[in-house]
Amino acid sequence: MADPKLSILAFPQKIQGNELFFNVLIIPRNIDPFVPWPETGAPAWVNADLQLRANFIKGLDNFPSDGAHVQQFNFAQTGIPTQANKMFELLKQQFNIVPAPAGSERRLQKPIPND
Questions:
Q1: Containing H/E element for 23?
Q2: Which comes out higher in pLDDT, residue 42 or 78?
């Protein structure tokens, strides 16, 4: 399996009438959030303009696929928060993240301790 680039977590918050409210957390993995993605031409994670969409399906009897959804909804208020750049800078400083060695499938790694 290819090295995953994102973790996507959904947190249901409440149901109000016929509306479902939830928060979505998308965390970049094994990538430098300040560097554009050369494989896709996408901008750096901290500069991305996320456009999320939810597909509702009829049930869990079959694996979801294109065209199998019942209804599609665009998310309101998507995008990278303005403070993301500062947050990733602080994380980078705190955890001492370094570039992965040449030839590695990963772009970042934790440094190897000097024993």
A1: strand 19-28
A2: 42
